[in-house]
Specification:
By secondary structure, the chain is an alpha/beta fold. The protein contains eight helices and five strands. The protein has a five-stranded parallel β-sheet with strand order 2-1-3-4-5, sandwiched between helices. Strand 3, helix 6 and strand 4 form a beta-alpha-beta unit. Helix 2 crosses helix 8, helix 3 packs parallel to helix 8 and helix 5 runs parallel beside helix 6.
Length: 205
């Protein structure tokens, strides 16, 4: 019998169990509070990644912009995925090089009240690290969801969560788990603080 599927589940559960045992979840709460505070002061969350991490960036931005929980019909929460569209991607790649993509977006769209969240399994993607250096120049606080020891990005981020694995698929699974939890925390806190209100007139599905 092919054990590929069972092995994937076992490895994923094993890694997440290790994280539960070793992680200071107060640290993640602090990161959530940092983002909540930025949003209440007029800032937004900028999120970027490559490949599967780009998909995670878009996924998490959508959870804030639209809705995370079906029972929480509320105003949108400002968030932008920096892998924006095919025209922007190809124009930057053609004109300035792909390594400049995210730094260009941070430079153009970022404000000091914003927070940059980078998602990278290796921590060594030049377009990610260039964006982190740009954020630092602009005094934009940066958070990294990293893996494989954190790579070069670990030293460039203001704060980070490093998945203790070098398996790309397993790292990405943890990134989306912690990402969902972070978005849920942000939404809950903004509702609890009265910054957002529930709107019963919005369509529920």
């Amino acid at each position: 019998m092919n054990n590929t599927f069972k092995k994937a589940f076992i490895n994923s559960v094993t890694l997440k169990s290790k994280i539960i045992e070793e992680t200071d979840f107060n640290h993640l709460t602090d990161l959530g509070n940092k983002i909540v505070n930025a949003i209440t002061k007029g800032g937004k969350l900028l999120i970027c990644g490559n490949g599967g991490s780009a998909a995670d960036a878009q996924h998490l931005a959508a959870e804030l912009l639209i809705r995370l929980k079906p029972m929480n019909n509320r105003q949108g929460i400002p968030a932008i995925s920096l892998a924006m569209d095919s025209s922007t991607l190809t124009a930057c790649g053609n004109d300035f090089g792909y390594d400049a993509l995210f730094s260009r977006m941070v430079e153009t769209l970022g404000q000091k009240e914003d927070i940059l969240l980078v998602i990278t399994t290796s921590g060594n993607s030049e377009n990610i690290n260039s964006a982190l250096r740009t954020a630092k120049k602009l005094n934009i606080f940066s958070i990294g969801f990293l893996g494989s020891g954190g790579g070069a990005a670990k030293e460039l981020c203001d704060d980070c969560f490093v998945v203790p694995s070098s398996d790309t698929a397993r790292i990405q699974e943890v990134h989306i788990t912690v990402g969902h939890a972070l978005m849920e925390y942000i939404e809950d806190q903004l509702l609890q603080d009265g910054f957002l209100e529930l709107d019963k007139t919005l369509n529920k599905k």
